[in-house]
Amino acid sequence: MRAFFQLFDLDTSDPELMRAQFRSFQGHIPLLYGILVCNTVAITVTSFNAALLIETLVAPIVISTIAIVRAIWWLRQGDAQNLSDLEISRHLKRTCQLAVIMTLTFNAWVIWVYQDAGAYARSNLTFFLALSQVSTVFCLMTLRAAAMMVSVVSTIAFALYFSWIEGGQLLPQSLVLCCVCIGMAVVTHSFNRSFSEVVQSRRTLHIRQLETEKLSEENRRIAFIDPLSGLPNRRELLARLDRLEQDEGLLPKTLAIVFIDLDGFKQVNDEHGHQAGDELIRIVCERLRQQCPDNAILARVGGDEFTVLLETDEQTQNAQAAALTLAFRLLEQMALPVLVDRHVLQISGSIGIATNTDAKVRPRELLRRADLAMYHAKTEGKGQVAIYSDELDEGRLRRIEIEGQIGAGLTSGEFDVVYQPIIDAASGTIVSAEALLRWPRRTQGPLSPDEFIEVAEATGQIHPLGLYVLERACRELRPLGDLCVSVNVSPAQFRHPGFERQVLSILERTGFPPERLQLEMTESYLLANPGLAIKAIGTLKAAGIALALDDFGTGFTSIHYLKSYGFTHIKLDKSLLQGLEPGSKAAMLVAGAITLATALEMSVIAEGVEHEAQASVLRDLGCQEMQGFLFGRPESLAKLKSLLKDAGNEQQRARRVQPVQ
Ligand code: C2E
Ligand code: CA
Ligand code: CA
Fold first, then answer.
1. Cβ of residue 574 lying under 6 Å from some atom of ligand 1
2. Å from CA of 656 to ligand 1 middle
3. Are residues 453 and 499 in the same domain?
4. Which residue from 141, 300, 195 is spatially nearest to 309, judged by alpha carbons?
5. CB 484 within 8 A of CB 430
6. 547: alpha, beta or left, given left = phi > 0 and alpha = psi -120 to 50?
7. What is the CATH number of the domain that holds 628?
8. Is the same domain home to 184 and 241?
9. Is 469 in the pocket of ligand 1 (CB under 6 A)?
10. Ligand 3 centroid to 608 CA: how many Å?
11. Is the pLDDT at 630 greater than 90, yes or no?
12. Range of the domain at 352
């Protein structure tokens, strides 16, 4: 019973549904009133009686006027966006009430007219009444309460009246109308359910759509923003550059790209962990961000790589100057110590700058140029700024060319090894020889080792090259009594995971005693990978191999580092020997280095000795070994052998004194 009465209740619990009903009414109600007015006019025409003016003219005019006013009101409602939920519910309620009132009024009027109408007009009246009832219910179908009430009220009025008059002759029509009413109620009920389901699913769809939009916005954010720093990432930068290219010609813009790469970031990650690395990136980003002007876009384009894109309307020269000023400010900021996890970290940055001197340089090309300039700054000693020039590209092309030639040269035997004698300072006997690589049979002409070794280090080709030198030197010098050999090892070789194993296997293959081998390495590797270097040095020393720190005096090796690595020798760089005379500043410097090495139980080898004056000072200062043009240039194996023979010192050659470990 309760369920039955609920069919007539206006459901105001779902504002969304009410809005949908309201919107559907905007089309349906004017139609409903249109039909009502047509029926009213039709009835008036068929039943007009001048004697019954109120009944057949005034009443239909009143009914039609109300219907037209309401129809216009509904037509003017628009999309109901600015109506509140409460107003909508109030309008729907009023519509329900009005629908019942209008139905009753119309029915009452038809019955009134019916009494005084002729037989023909009466049949018209019943037809119009039934028609109005059916069309009204259908037009109100989206609002169940209204449709049900109209249906019940009009059917009851019709059935009661028409089964009672005409001696019950119209009873069958009344019964049929009752059946139609029940049918319409069922249809209305199920239609209403479907209607609210459609509204519901539209709402769900809308919510899903919002969620999808949110998700795709989130995806876009993830795709174009670096999550760690919150800065635009490489993809976003490239998209920006592409947009600038498309806009070309619209704006007279000068572009400058400042490409920044942190120096020593990998070391922080290795030594302090990735969390510390992340924190460092965050802090550095913040510092960079603060320095960037408003017209700049700072992006993180790699793990420790950033770019600043400067767009100005200025002249190229000014843009370059502005980029340079910014670059130096950024360098200063990066050089400031960073406190991470209670550690004070010190890093620096290498910066490359490229500006589009003419509009022909595509923005993406500008990025490549800035990257190349940065690479140049890095290889030139880090913590520097380099500006792109065509020569950099030429150098790059040359390096690519050399890279291809090294591989081919190694397989076709274009390389040679030469030996430079190292003498014992006290006795003057040749105790050792440094093996140095040469490329004499290069098809395009000889190349200095400084040039091709730099390329080989950058490409990783130094690894097979270095092993080639080691194996050849061990093989060639093994028969030369107890002459030692010193072989250069590049930092890149040390980084190779199987390096120590490969050295030991060469010694085994060639039968060269480990005690006669010395490896020379520069400090750049030590600074980058202290942990790994100590481990590698430990393994090699345990096998009996001596280890020398090459080019001492050109870098920043701290006493602490020197002590912890356990080198057996240091090689004083030739630059320290310039102007080396008794009492000179150079002599004081060398004396200090020798004192330091002795205190750390290391032997000193002076490199680049060209004059007897230098040799004499070195001897006086207690330097153990010397190497330089004064004693012999790097020469072929045959020349080394004849040098050894000439000196006639094979027998007297002193065994190199290994310092106590
Ligand atoms: P380095 O290890 O410092 O080698 C010593 C360099 O100083 C050699 O140059 C040698 O010829 C030069 N030198 C020796 N005595 C004198 C002197 O009295 N005066 C002057 N002005 N120079 C002298 P080189 O052979 O041109 O080698 C240059 C650099 O190339 C080497 O410097 C080394 O870093 C690298 N290198 C050479 N061969 C190899 C190798 O087989 N492997 C690796 N990794 N690097 C090598
Ligand atoms: Ca060397
Ligand atoms: Ca050296």
1. yes
2. 21
3. yes
4. 300
5. no
6. beta
7. 3.20.20.450
8. no
9. yes
10. 8
11. yes
12. 234-392
Backbone φ and ψ for 292, nearest 5 degrees, come out as -75, 135
Among 336, 364, 392, residue at a domain's last position: 392
Among 280, 281, 291, 378, smallest CA distance to 327 is for 291
User: Which tokens sit at 83?
Assistant: 């109506």
Assess whether 41 and 98 both reside in one domain: yes
Residues 102 and 244 in one domain: no
Q: How far apart are CA 287 and CA 298, in angstroms?
A: 11
Give the chain's domain count.
3
Considering 392, 423, 444, which residue would you say is the last residue of a domain?
392
SS3 content of the chain, % helix, strand, coil (to 5): 60, 15, 25
Structure tokens at 456: 């080989």
Ligand 1 nearest atom to the CA of residue 489, by list position: 44
Decide: 322 and 314 in contact? Cβ < 8 Å. yes
Q: Are residues 370 and 437 in the same domain?
A: no
How far apart are the C-alpha atoms of 316 and 46, rounded to whole Å?
92
For residue 255, give the CATH number of its domain: 3.30.70.270
**Rounded distance, CA 41 to CA 218, Å?**
62
222 located within any domain: no
Q: What is the dihedral sign for C-alpha 109, 113, 115, 121?
A: negative
Q: List CB-based neighbours of ion ligand 2 within 5 Å.
A: 488, 520, 550
Residue to probe by mutation, ligand 1, list 415, 474, 488, most atoms within 8 Å of CB: 488
Same domain, 531 and 492: yes
Q: Is 548 in the pocket of ligand 1 (CB under 6 A)?
A: no
Q: Which pair of tokens denotes residue 571?
A: 């090689």
379 and 411 in a single domain? The answer is: no
Q: What is the pLDDT of residues 578-615, one digit of tens each?
A: 999 998 999 999 999 999 999 999 999 999 999 999 99
- pTM of this structure: 0.59
Please tell me the least confidently modeled range out of 26-30, 334-338, 435-439, 657-661: 657-661
Q: Among residues 526, 600, 520, which one has the least CA distance to residue 566?
A: 600
In a domain, 318, yes or no: yes
Residues 640, 533: one domain? Answer: yes
Residue 229 domain-assigned (yes or no): no
